[in-house]
Structure prediction request, 95 residues.
Amino acid sequence: RGTHGPLLMAIVPEPEEKDRDVLLSGSDGAILRSFLRASGMAETDCYIASALPRYTPLVDWTVMASRGLGAALALHVKLVAPRRVVVFGRRLDAL
Prediction:
């Protein structure tokens, strides 16, 4: 969620378990909002994305990488064209 060409694109591995209408509406989102405030940015300065479209327990990230998730995520970043990217979570390093 966000607009093209933001100051920052924040990427998480997957939505929070209780997310329904808004990505990162729970505690992880609160951490991101605090990070943005501390950085002097408004939430509208940030494009928020997740590698997976829904919360998925026990994801095999190696399999997801072999199925092209890393390439799809790289294309997403290219299309959004942010000035900077921050990636949260250790699971995305497999992509």
